[in-house]
Structure formats: structure tokens, C-alpha cells
Amino acid sequence: MMGEPDYCFAADLGGTKLAAAIADEHGRIVAELTEPTDPRGAPFVAEQIVGCADKLAQSAGIDVTRARHVMVGIPGAIDPRTGRVSLTPNIAGLEDFDILGFLRGRFGPDVAIENDVNLAMLGEHALGCASRCRNAAFLSLGTGAGLGLLIDNKLFRGASGSAGEIADLPIGRDPTSQIPSAGSTFELEVGSLAIVDRYRRQGGTAAATVRDIFRLLEQGDDVAASVLDTTARSVALAVVTLQSLLDLELIVFGGSIGVRPELYERVRNALPALFSRPITIAPSQLGDRAGLIGAAWAAGRALRQNLEPA
Fold it and tell me: In this structure, are 14 and 117 located in the same domain?
């Protein structure tokens, strides 16, 4: 008689929301939830992750101890040698908190943490628009900018886990612009705060968020169109840089801004004038669930490997 099936637990931690799921050994999600990230900082967020596992197990009628493998996506760089997290401005205290050690203390040794955009890349590779690719990237554009790289069918993390941390890529403002520059890094050009600031600097008055700017664009607002044109040029320069270095089959656009056709179509239109070879870009097929799906798939893969006979 066969015993009870084993499961895995996955979570995608963001600065504003935490998504979590229980999945089977194939990474197929059987229960999931989303709740606001605890604003009190890393120790509380870590407890929240554990609490989500308990809630999901109860709702699915599963003993939480059957979750044999755990994968948690973290918004930052993770050193593969030490598990230390860095570059995490959105969650207070996370760089000084041993979240991997905490989670292993609660769940057992089979816990891993991974950069959230890397997991989004895995999700698109497993079940999304990059399923036929060996070399691809996931470019996340929203509050900030991040990149997940798939090279020869494997995640590429770099020497210290910082590959893809492109916020500081030195792509500055349009050199012909008369608007004074507050900085010259990619995130300061294409992040949501930068887009809203650019709209206001160019005389726009009706937008408090990027969502407002997209709405105004639909209404024919010329300033909104100009702002997105400028943003798209900076993104296109980053895309050309990636392609010239890595010769990718596909660059997937994700994040709350990256998935918007108003942006990625502008980027697509800008590329031919910047690069002699075709570059294929596409919006994320999995949307804001890409990271969670990637985490579930990775945890399921680890579980399957553990279940295979030696």
C-alpha cells in the first residue's frame, strides 16, 4: 500500500505582497494564497511565510509536515555560497536576518531561497512563453528593475549571486533632453517613481501613479505618450545591451510595468534602429504569478529528485 503523497511549499516574497502555494511533486499548485507583506520587517515576514504554509495545508487538508521541499523567492541578490541576502531595499532588516536558517529551523533542511526574478524566469521556462528556449531572460519592470537569466538551460547567478541586478546599469536619461538628471542609473530611469516624476517634470498634472499615466495615454494625453516614449528608449538600450552580450532567444517582459503593451510595443518599435539583428521580446505569459509558479516548479523538481531511487 502506498503512503500519503509528498508535497512542496513555495512562496514569492515582495515588498508589498506575499504569494504562497502548496504544490505536488510535479510543481502543480494545489492551493495558494496572497496577502500583504508584513511591514514590520524581516523576522515578522519570516513568521508570515511559515504561517502561510500552515494556512494552506489546513485549507487543502494536508499535514504541513508533508511539505518536504520549500522554495522561497526573495527580492534581492542571494550569495549561493553563504545564503546571505543583499540588495533588498523593500524589506527592512532582511540583509541582517538569516532567513534561510530560520526557515530551515521551521521546515527542515530541504529549504532553498532564490532571487524572485530568477524564479519568474524558471516559471516562464517551465510553463510559459520561454518553454522552448535554452537562452532567455526575464526583465522585470515595476517599482524597480530586475533580471533573471537562463543560460544553456540553467539559471545564471554569477560569482556572488548578483547576476541580473541591473538597477545600477549606467543607462542615463536621453542626452538630448532639457530635463535635468537626478541620476544616471537604469532604475532611476525606468522605475515607477521615475516615470511619474518624468510626467510631472514635463508638465503633466493628472497622474499620481504609473497606472494613471497608462489611463491618460488611452485618453490621448500627449505628455503621457512622450513619457512612455522616453522610458521605452531607455529600456530598449538595456535590451540591446543584453542581446549584444548574451545572444538570447527571447527576452520576457514582466512586472507591473513590463507587461503593459503600451510599453513593450514601444520598446519593440525602438529596437531596429538600435541593433542590426532581430531581437525577440514578449510579455510574460504567467503575469504576476510567474515567480510563484517558478518557485513551485523548482520545489517540485527537488522533491522529485529526492523521491527517485538511488
Answer: yes
Q: Which amino acid is at 141?
A: L
Do 264 and 154 fall into the same domain?
yes
Across 142-234, the runs of DSSP E, i.e. the strands, are 145-151, 154-155
Does residue 182 register a pLDDT over 50?
no
Predicted local distance difference test score (pLDDT) of residue 171: 82
The answer to whether residue 310 scores a pLDDT higher than 60 is: no
**Separation of alpha carbons 180 and 25, rounded Å:** 53
Whole-number Å distance between alpha carbons of 145 and 168: 9
**What's at 57, amino acid-wise?**
A
Residues 148/115, Cβ–Cβ less than 8 Å: yes
pLDDT at site 24: 92
**CB atoms closer than 10 angstroms to residue 157:** 19
User: Would you put residue 217 in left (φ > 0), alpha (ψ -120 to 50) or beta?
Assistant: alpha
Domain count across the chain:
2
Mean pLDDT of 34-53: 97
Dihedral, 58, 64, 66, 68 alpha carbons, nearest 10: 130
Average pLDDT for 97-108: 95
Residues 142 and 90 in one domain: no
Range of the domain at 184: 131-284
Instruction: Record the pTM.
Output: 0.92
Q: Which residues pair with 58 in a beta bridge?
A: none
pLDDT, tens only, 198-226: 999 999 888 899 999 999 999 999 999 99
Per-residue pLDDT for 33 more than 70?
Answer: yes
Q: Supply 21's cell numbers.
A: 502555494
Residue 162 has phi, psi (to 5 degrees) of -100, 5
Per-residue HEC secondary structure of 274-292 comes to CCCCCCCEEECCCHHHHHH
Gap between the Cα atoms of 250 and 41, Å rounded: 36
Q: Are residues 68 and 99 in the same domain?
A: yes
